[in-house]
Every structure is written in structure tokens, then in C-alpha cells.
Amino acid sequence: MSRPMSEKQKKWLAGSGIALFLLLSALIFFFAGKPLIQFVQEPERFRAWVDEQGPMAVIAYLGMQILQIVVAIIPGEPLEIAAGYAFGAWEGTLLCLAGAFLGRVAVFLLVRRFGTRAVEVFFPLEKLNDLKFLRNRRKMTWWVFFLFFLPGTPKDVLCYFVGLTDLPLKSWLLIAAVAPLPSIVTSTIGGNALGVGDYTFAVIVFFVTLVISGLGLLVYRVLCQTRERSQS
Predict the structure, then answer these.
(1) Phi-psi category of 42—alpha, beta or left, where left has phi over 0 and alpha has psi -120 to 50?
(2) Residue 93: is its pLDDT beyond 50?
(3) CA-to-CA distance for 207 and 212, rounded, in angstroms?
């Protein structure tokens, strides 16, 4: 009969698991995501690469999208615009939704397994203080859905925080699948407009998106401050 692990062994095992996860993420980024980074500088070359790779381009994009959510190396908007540019509005939107869903489910399960140690790899715990009001069980699901549905909110931080709450996995699956739709659609539509050369429409879409995102971020900050004062 094997002896139970000591606290030191548990910490070492958790740290090793996170290190291995980061290593695998870095490998995905290097081999699958590198062509996507070229979009920012050479969009036509990226589109040609997508055409050449066929189904493998879809797999590469999903890998990069998942990596962006989990490791938060790259802002999500450029990848979403890239999807609309190279894959078109409809396929790009579906790819973004699928990649974001898989990435956020992975984050949820990672945080549930390793707790605050997983969060501290990417964010200082102090950054989560504004979100303490989400621990209110009675309204937690509604608030989490609202904050993910609202463009401009810091969804990477929110994603890691949710794993520390008591939100049921089935509720998170629904939120992760549906709530990000407005933010993703605007980016992929704008990217598609760039891809077909409709620059006027692209500028309008990105301007409206910028305004809505700015308002969403303002609402988020006011909400956090208001809820913090009401609980103090």
C-alpha cells in the first residue's frame, strides 16, 4: 500500500504539471501558430498559406486560438480578424467560437485542478479582487454570462477567475459557447471586409466595435467599483 503524498510532493507535482502544460503550449505556438502571427504583417501571404494547407490550416488556427485563451500570449482580436480575413465571415466565426470554447473549458478545468497556483502563472491574484462579487452564488451565472457577453471586458482574467468559483461546469459550457458571440462576430465581419477589399465597411465595423468595447469596459469598471462599495 503506497503512502500518501506529502504537501511538498503535491506542490512539486502541481508545479511540474503546469510547467509541462506551458511547454506543450509553447510547442503548439511555434509549430502551429507561427503562420498566424504573419497575418499582422503579411495578410496576403497568410491567406495563401491557408489555401495551401487546406484542412490543416483549420487545425492550426484552432491550436492557436486555444493557446491564446489558455496562455494569453496574444490579444484575441487580431486572431479573430485573421479568421474573418482568411476563412470568411461564417467559417471564421465558427472557428473562433470553437477555439475560444475549447480554450475556456481547458482553463476552467486547469484552474479547478490546480487552484490559485494556475492563476498565478499568468495573473497576480490582486488583479482578481475586483471580481469578488461574482462569488455571490445566487446571481453568479447571470453575472458571468453578462460580463462575457459584453464586449470590451477583460475576458482572459474573467476566464481564470471563474474556475475559482463554484459555478457548475454545465453552466460554464453554455456561457463559453454562447456569450462570446458578439465580440467574435464583429471582429470576423471586419476581417472578412478587409479580405474582400471593402475597406469602407471594415472601417465602420472596427470603429463601431471600438466604441462598443470602450463602453463595455466602462460599464465593467463602474460595475466592479459599485459592487465592491456595496459589499464593503
Answers:
(1) beta
(2) yes
(3) 9
Grid cell at residue 84: 474573418
Task: Please give, one letter per residue, the 3-state secondary structure of the chain.
Answer: CCCCCCHHHHHHHHHHHHHHHHHHHHHHHHHHHHHHHCCCCCHHHHHHHHHHHCHHHHHHHHHHHHHHHHHCCCCHHHHHHHHHHHHCHHHHHHHHHHHHHHHHHHHHHHHHHHCHHHHHCCCCHHHHHHHHHHHCCCCHHHHHHHHHHCCCCCHHHHHHHHCCCCCCHHHHHHHHHHCCHHHHHHHHHHHHHHHCCCHHHHHHHHHHHHHHHHHHHHHHHHHHHHHHHHHC
* Nine cell digits for residue 191: 476581417
- Can you give the pLDDT at residue 2? 46
Name the most confidently modeled range: 19-23, 33-37, 67-71, 160-164. Answer: 160-164
Predicted model pTM: 0.78
Q: Sign of dihedral through CA atoms 21, 22, 24, 25?
A: positive
- Grid cell digits, residue 129: 479582487
Task: Tell me the three cell numbers of residue 68.
Answer: 491564446
**For residue 101, pLDDT beyond 90:** yes
Does pLDDT of 175 surpass 60?
yes
Q: Which three cell numbers stand for residue 6?
A: 506529502
* pLDDT surpassing 60 at residue 14: no
